[in-house]
Amino acid sequence: MKILPFAARNLLRNKRRSALAMASVFLSILMVIVLQGFTNGFLDSMVRNYIKNETGHINIAMAGYRERVRFMPVDEYIENSPALAESIREAVKAKDPGAIVAERIRFGVLLSSESGTKEAMAIAGDPEVERKLLMLDTRILPGGGYMSPVGETIVGETLADDLGLKVGDTLKVVTQKADGGLGFRKLRISGLFKTSVNSLDGMVFQMSLQDARILLGMENGAQQISVTLSGMREVATMTKLVQGIVDARGTGALSVLPWTSIGEYPKMIQLMNVVYYWVFLIVALLGSFIIANVMTMVILERKREIGILMSMGMPKRKILSLFLAEGTMLGLAGSLAGTAIGVGLILILARKGFDMTSAMAGFSWPLDNVIYPSVTPGTVFMGIVMGTVVSAAISYLPSRRAARMAPVDAIRSA
Amino acid sequence: MRRLVFMNVFVAAGLLFCAAIAGAQGAQGLDASAILAKVDANQVYSTIYYEGKMEITSGSKTKVKTMRAWSAGSGKAFIEFTNPEDKGVRMLKLEKNLWMYFPSERDTVKISGALLRQGMMGSDFSYEDAMEPDDLKNLYSAELMGKEILDGRECFVLQLVAKNKEVAYAKRKLWVDAERFIVARSELYAKSGMLLKISKTLDYTKVGSRYFPSIVEFSDALKKNSKTVMSMTSLALDVPMDEGRFSLQALTK
Asked: A17, A176, A238, A398: which has the fewest C-beta neighbours closer than 10 Å?
């Protein structure tokens, strides 16, 4: 007797029972896949934004800058940074053509207007390069435009409101220069941006690297050089490559670090990864528990059938194989359906994004206000394997117990 | 006569420094309050003018800033920087307000917020220090802790505690020269007891019957390997001074 066709016939014989068991597997796997998709999207957004906005995958700065990084010191800067950035760009792009090498300066300022003064943070870089990194050009409000390389700035909408400024007005920027003196520069506001992240809209403005160098008296320097790669895989290799270029420059004062070694933020992301892992594990256990409950009920309901099969001379091994096959088939079908629908849902949401603007307004970390859930091959594999294995295992255990009983006891106990 | 407040480098980098002015008087039998009154009394000048040089050392780097400074009374001061990097930058203090004029943009900005707490022109004392009044006796309660020999000279050691919360430093410890009544050393503390700033008078000039500190070293206790040495030359006290100098119009001239 062939087990698999027999098992299939059994499943089709009681369609309602089979549908109930399959639905439990389907719902459990769907829940697990969607949750995994959202946590992936959330963490991906955090990592991606941190890398492109803050450090790059690899960050080069003076060792002294690292020690006082939270004060954003401007007196510890890389001299002749364009030459170093160009050397790094050539070497990195040879291996990763999509890589972006950016010189940047961040510093605290006092902004002044006719209506008062306000403290803020300046982010300075090459405006064209920052189109691919900060991407604030995509958040410019109607009536304004992106900045030109000299003499212009884009300002957070709330910050501009606080200063009573609008597009076309002059922003007065005062800050401590690299030599400790006070620097002052006037910039024309070419546009206002709105990200819906309070800390950005109310505290930040973008200026060009050229203007920042004049303001800070940095001449040809930059506070940091960030290298943003096309993906995560080559970070370690590329860090070594960049370190080699920096070493060849012959200065020991520069520090080359991968993004995971800079500040507390990566540690927080790692911690969130662990927390999400445990949440996922609990949800997966909950899903398994639902599958187990339904499958156990289904098998125990069929004790009489097991007793009859034994009394008709069917060997225990074959009975076990039959129920194992049935459980596996139900689990596989439910898992495939759950994974397919879950992945489909995630792909739809990934295209449109999940708008969390209102919930994220108070966040200070670099996170998109639209979350794009994501799915990986690992998630698909995990969903299918989990549903199938749990169903098979849960089918096996109660049917083994029933098969060990005397046929007459099995028939009576049903 | 009005009290000189804004008198040292930035004329009032304050009590870090100005308390270091004193006349030679006998010290025996004085209590803490009387010693403090004598230190304060030695600061009574109507106006001051000087040319200053500030050597700011941070690690292995040293920067030099030069300036000319005028001050009148307790609340008015005008400084013009003369070193090449900051040439023409001017600073006006009127009571609790501070304006800076930048010749590169030909514009004036009122300074406020965190910038006031940063080191003035990169030095070890902040703009906020310069805004402090110098009336030690009115601002602090003093306690005489004893006498110590400092650099070969006998000094009273005074512990000062602020009478109100508005002062920048909640506690101070002063070493007052027992003969000259100048502050030879000063330590400034936060309310928590953390040491924030230290000043040492390195040299004096005798002006009339008083000793005036001409070279003073400041250090920020929170910065490593950092100090600022301020020296004053061409010092002129109680000279006639045009009131118009202490105005926003004068900043832009």
From this structure: A17
Q: Is the residue at B46 inside a domain? A: yes
Instruction: Identify the pLDDT of residue A39.
Output: 86
What residues contact B21, with CB distance under 8 A and at least 6 apart? B7, B39, B42, B43, B182, B210, B211, B212, B213
User: How many domains, chain B?
Assistant: 1
Domain ranges of chain A: 3-50+267-413, 101-228
Residue B52's nearest CA partner among B94, B83, B74 is: B83
- List chain B residues with CB under 8 Å of A118: 113
Position B138 in a domain: yes
Minimum CA–CA partner of A109 in chain B: B115
CATH number at residue B137: 2.50.20.10
**Nearest-CA neighbor of A229 among A129, A368, A50, A92?**
A92
- To the nearest whole angstrom, how far is the Cα of A118 from the nearest Cα of chain B? 8
**Residues A225, A227: Cα–Cα separation, whole Å:** 7
Mean pLDDT of chain A: 87
Mean pLDDT of A229-234: 89
ipTM greater than 0.90: no
pLDDT of residue B51: 93
The answer to whether residues B131 and B112 touch, using CB atoms and an 8 Å cutoff, is no
Q: Which of A150-154, A231-235, A355-359 has the highest mean pLDDT?
A: A150-154
Q: Answer yes or no: is B224 within a domain.
A: yes
Domain span at B150: 14-75+131-244
Which chain B residues are closer than 8 Å to A64 by Cβ? 59
What is the tens place of the pLDDT at every residue in A329-381? 988 999 999 999 999 999 988 888 877 766 666 555 555 667 788 888 888 89
Which among A110, A180, A186 has CB closest to B115? Answer: A110
